[in-house]
Every structure is written in structure tokens, then in C-alpha cells.
Amino acid sequence: MANVVEVVTSLVEPILEDYHFDLVDVEYVKEGKNWFLRVFIDKPGGIDINECVLVSEQLGEKLDTIDPDPIPQAYFLEVSSPGAERPLKKEEDYQNAIDEYINVSFYQMVEGEKQYHGFLKEVTPETVTLLVRIKTREKEMTFDRKNIAKARLAIQF
Known about the structure:
This protein is an alpha+beta fold. It has helices at about 5-20, 50-65, 90-95, and strands at about 20-30, 35-40, 75-80, 100-110, 115-125, 125-135, 135-145, 150-155. A five-stranded antiparallel sheet has the order 7-6-5-4-8, with no helix packed on it. Helix 1 packs across helix 2 (about 50-65). It is elongated, with a radius of gyration of 18 Å. The termini are far apart.
């Protein structure tokens, strides 16, 4: 049987298409003793609470009708905006983030660091190039995408 994220993705995508919303991410995680099914949605100009409620209600109804239940344990369903620090998952996310300030975390250290912040300058299928500030100087650094564990928009302080 497909995993929870795959099942939920297949259920929520048609709902989102009806409203011209974008699926940013689906995660199913255990925090403490509780399980959370989180669905992050967006649209140009941002998503509002009423739109999140609309999707949550329709997705909840669909999940309740599946037999056998793809999620056997109790869980909390959360549908929300990805927020200001939106994850970069798809190729389109990376392309839309060019010239934006982002955070990149790696599976293995790169030049002694596990993560870098900087302005996304270039994206290819194999690499990501950031303009990073190291102390008082700026430097362009290119990273292998296969070494990137997570990438997200970041807020610059």
C-alpha cells in the first residue's frame, strides 16, 4: 500500500486544482505522542484562513471515506500556508526563488558548514549557486543539488 504522504497527495491535488491552489508540501510526522498530517498550500498573492478551512474540510471528508483507512492511528489534520520561510521542493520553487534570500542545509558538511544563507543566483539540474556573505565579503558558492537536504526561503536580518 502507498504511504500516507502519497495517498494524501493524490486526494488533495484534485481539490486544489478546482480552486487553482498550489500544493507546496505534505508531511506526516510524529511529535511527542501525537501524529500530525500537515498539508501546505499556496496561490499567487497568498492563501487565507478561509481557503485553508475549505481544503481541510474537503480533504477530511475524502480521508473519512477511504476503506481501509490509510492512516490507522489518530492524527491532527492541519492545512496551512507554507509561511514566509516556504520550502523549496520542486524545480519551479527554485526558479521562482532566484534572487531571493534562502537557507540551504546539507547532508554532509561543505567547507566546514552544514548550512548556508544567501541569495539564490542560479539553478541547474545539478547545482545551486548562492551569493553568501562570509564575515565582511561576499562570495558566490556553487553546491551539488544531490548534497542538499533542505532548501527554503529565509528572512534576512
